[in-house]
Amino acid sequence: MNPTIRYSLLLAVAGACLGMYLSATGSSGERLSLKTASQDPASTQSLHGGELISPFATGSAGQGNGRATLPLPLAPVYARNGRQVDLGGLTAQQYISKWNSLARAGDKDAAYNVYQATAVCASNDEPAPAYRSTAELEQFQAERKKMLALCEGVNPAQLQERLSFLAVAARAGKVEAQIDYFMEGPYGRDTDLAKSAEDPVVQQWKTEAVTDLKSAAGQGEPFALALLSQVYDAGELLPRDARLSLAYKVAEADARNSVLSEEQLRRNAGAQMSDADFASALQTGRQIASACCKKSRLSAQE
To answer: What's the domain of life for this entry (predicted)?
Structure first.
């Protein structure tokens, strides 16, 4: 399979997985009121679902443009990463201004807030998707006008700088940012990783994205464990390793308090493994889970 296509499939599956994960766990986004914003548990095919959008695909149809003369959306809006963002009645530019100083001083939560606000506006200039009916297209266009109003004053430099703020939050250990850093990709837009293999920005992103995922996984984050399973299965960011892919799947199930029988694991992930490799993968997965997930549960109980 073509490497770019295979990696795009990886991210598509990742988006679907996060949709299911967010429906079970709720949001990790930061509200203006400093409360945790709730993620929409809708289907991953919904325009306003909780899925994380692939960095190598266009933004969702719900992320459109608008004009300043229109009323701002009353309900929470959705960033390009698929997360729900509550701007507290402010425009995106006002929200950015509120958190900008703290973000530039290195505060990880403020940096993530700025990233989220700019991510709301990151897909506003993308073409309208192909809709099956005129009514659907008109609804999209109406939402796009509202989004342009919400994003008035946010300039291209700020849209690009969102990735720097995201990196600040990710490097400081904010789990949501570590996952989003992977999902955004090296440029926050469509990127052919195979053709850009020698690009220093892409090379740095690959290294940091894997490091961030492993850091989030080490904190017992189920979705990060799932992503690592997919990364090792795809063999694009890391050498393909079926044993580690299965191990992270085992650890993910443990982190979600799910039970996967050995028969299920053998059928879904270990069909081509020898008995020795399969047993080794199960043992490694349990060790990963013991190191991260049980520690995470204890922290949550304290």
So the answer is: Bacteria
Q: Are 86 and 31 spatial neighbours (Cβ–Cβ below 8 Å)?
A: yes
Q: Do 191 and 56 form a contact (C-beta atoms < 8 A)?
A: yes
- Cα(284)–Cα(288) distance, rounded to whole angstroms? 6
Q: What percent of the chain has pLDDT over 70?
A: 71
Single-letter code of the amino acid located at 27:
S
In this prediction, residue 45 carries a pLDDT of 29
How many whole angstroms separate alpha carbon 155 and alpha carbon 122? 10
How many CB atoms lie under 10 A from the CB of residue 131? 14
Residue 48 has pLDDT above 50, yes or no: no
Token pair, residue 43, equals 């289907």
The residue with tokens 């700088």 is 161
Give, in order, the Cα–Cα distances in Å from 258 to each of 147, 246, 251.
39, 15, 10
CA gyration radius, the chain:
20
- CA dihedral (55, 70, 32, 162) in degrees, to 10, reads 30
What's the pLDDT at 62?
36
Torsional sign, CA 272, 273, 278, 284: negative
Residue 120, phi-psi category: left (phi > 0), alpha (psi -120 to 50), beta (remainder): alpha
Q: What is the pLDDT of residue 109?
A: 97
